Amino acid sequence: MKKKTTIYDIAKELNVTVSTVSRALNGFSTISDATKKAVLETAKKMNYSPNKLASSLKSGKTQTIGVIVPSTQVHFFASVIHSIEQTLKNNGYRVLLYQSNESLENEINGVKTLLEAQVDGIIASMSLETEDVSHFKSVIKQNKPLILFDRTHKDIEAPSVTINDFDAGYMATQHLVDKGYRNIGFVTTSHQIKIFNDRYEGFKQALKDNNLSIAEENIVFGGLSIKDGRFGAGKLLRSTNLPDAIIAGDDFTALGVIKKLKENNLVPPHIGVMGFANETFSAFITPSLSTIDQQANKMGAECAKMFLKMVKKKNPYDNIEHIILEPVLVERQSTDKN
Amino acid sequence: MKKKTTIYDIAKELNVTVSTVSRALNGFSTISDATKKAVLETAKKMNYSPNKLASSLKSGKTQTIGVIVPSTQVHFFASVIHSIEQTLKNNGYRVLLYQSNESLENEINGVKTLLEAQVDGIIASMSLETEDVSHFKSVIKQNKPLILFDRTHKDIEAPSVTINDFDAGYMATQHLVDKGYRNIGFVTTSHQIKIFNDRYEGFKQALKDNNLSIAEENIVFGGLSIKDGRFGAGKLLRSTNLPDAIIAGDDFTALGVIKKLKENNLVPPHIGVMGFANETFSAFITPSLSTIDQQANKMGAECAKMFLKMVKKKNPYDNIEHIILEPVLVERQSTDKN
DNA sequence: CTGAAAGCGCTAACAG
DNA sequence: CTGTTAGCGCTTTCAG
Question: What are phi and psi of A160, to 5 degrees?
Fold first, then answer.
């Protein structure tokens, strides 16, 4: 195994100094076309590949951004990562990935690891466990760009990119009302996470604006999963005030609701069902599920752009922006009551 | 913004030298408990965070692995990445992510970027466009571990982790035969990719072993997508020799097939349908889709383990292993003919 | 237009 | 048990 060639090797080869080689390689103007050409040629001939580690050590910039997400197995996060990487790669940045697996401990380790790797910034979505956020504050303290998306936290003074979940809830509800449903139930999580809360608030407001009352008995707080959906639907089916539509906290829960309804011969859209997230499967189940799209790709792109903007400023936290994307209603069969 | 504290700062603080500090920090035994304790304490007090860049430059190891996949938006790849990152993080490695987007040019850029970042190895699945593989050979030439998964290439002499796609095809076919189907059609891609070809070969062998003939008119070569599935099924429905079961090249195509069949009141399992990949949606559509699971998580874990094994050897390519995982049959409603 | 030399932060051989 | 010192590969003043 021959040693990798460095700028020293190519300097020696050409009887110039490393500074000359460095300049030529970096396309500085203060260099004669002749030597520049020579350098470039021998570089290629000697199969030179720059060691970015060395320049990073010198410059203090790694051209690398850290991304922390709960799990790439969740389609939403995979999509966000997709567009972050796409956007940033075109701007000369690399992506260092870290999964928290919804564990605070992992998340803390994540920012530590990324910081030690000297990333130029971090884009993250918090784990469900996270309450104390001092680990995130440490990146702000270093004056490195930190951008939070989707799952943010009120104690962190950093830019964020989120969906307007109040509108999402409102939109889902209004859609059902528009379709003629009047007695709308809600199956969601008791977890005190902002986004779920906001959706619920939007739901309530929409009902109020339409002069519809909230049937407290038709609100089920549990978890979010297919199983929870079945459970929630089961509870509503036993209600003395059977709802004519059900909104679920996410698409998986909605799927559970649909399954339970079908088993009871109350196939949507006879009873309307709405979810949140627009998972891949939602278009393909029967009946196909109306839902609210979370704009994952746009969210990723916005995070990336935000980072690029921040990284240019001497003080990234000069004037903190919070981007709130509008959710998008996806109408499908499960609410298509005519 | 105060400068970051280095081992020099903490050395000065304690009136010792950097070597002492370095030793203490790295837990060397040749250091007195007293100084070690002092160092650790002041390190914490001064909020010290090591600059891994510097040690990497020195050691030539970055503790970082590069991962190249077509797209994280494809659930299979997202799952593989998930387990790669999970496994490697527990062994002190970070993951640098690069998406090729099925473009050869991007892929070439990917290995260049990762190599310049001095990754300790690369795990990759090739883009559909890739024919010439010299870019991958360059990583082997550097004697750095390269592991290919799922989409490999015969010209690359590197370890690989794949699924036995012949068995996958065989298994799918045998399952249909076991369920009583006798006249089995196939809707797949004309693209000459090994994995698709292997599945088709497995299909043919299984028919032969069961003394069933291949109805050439019931083999459709096109693309792989919902649309292609509908198209393929349409063609088979017009066949003079209507099949009683259809295998599709992947789950999306199978979904298209199912949709078409349902429109023609030939709801599976009346006509049996099988897919490949076990996408998330496959369990949730109606009827739920029988399919062959590709073992994404296991594949990722195996890639990671292979890397760890290789990175330990002085010559990683000493004795190249090819791990072939067995696919797993997932029986669901679409083939449940009784 | 080019050279000399210092230094980014850390490790490790060598010396005591 | 601790200190000295020479780099890792590259960038970047400061001189010429």
Answer: -145, 155
